[in-house]
Amino acid sequence: MSDADTRIASVVGENDVVLFMKGTPLFPQCGFSSRAVAILDHCGVQYESVDVLQDMEIRQGIKTYSEWPTIPQLYVKGEFVGGSDIMMEMFEAGELQQMLDDNKVAKIEG
Q1: Could you tell me whether strands 79-82 and 48-51 are parallel, antiparallel, or unpaired per DSSP bridges?
Q2: Pairing status of strand 79-82 against strand 73-76
Q3: 41, 21 Cβ separation under 8 angstroms
């Protein structure tokens, strides 16, 4: 297992919801990452984000780790869910919210 794989596995294992994205939730650096953030924010759940633009090892490593070629990538309870298109389809069908509820993902306080 590479150093990048170890770091990815650690962040995925330690957080209920992880979004590997370009940029940050406050400043997404691509439209797909912006859409993914908007979906998660609308679902009202707590999530960890990883800015792949800050670490080239993670940027390449996440594609190998998930066997998925594009970013952003969403993980829920250690399971790879998909990219922004899959997130949007699941969100529109109510499946993403159901998955988050079924996994008892923490809601944002407020």
Answers
A1: unpaired
A2: antiparallel
A3: no
Q: Could you tell me the CATH number of the domain that includes residue 36?
A: 3.40.30.10
**What's the pTM value of the predicted model, to 2 decimals?**
0.96
Q: What is the CA radius of gyration of the chain?
A: 13
Q: Name the residue type at position 82.
A: G
Domain holding 47, by residue range, is 3-102
30 known ligand binder: yes
| Helices and strands (H and E) in the chain: how many | 5, 4
Banded model confidence at residue 2, pLDDT cuts 50, 70, 90: confident
Domains in the chain: how many in total?
1
pLDDT in tens, 7-58: 999 999 999 999 999 999 999 999 999 999 999 999 999 999 999 999 999 9
Question: Is there a contact between 20 and 48 (Cβ–Cβ < 8 Å)?
Answer: no
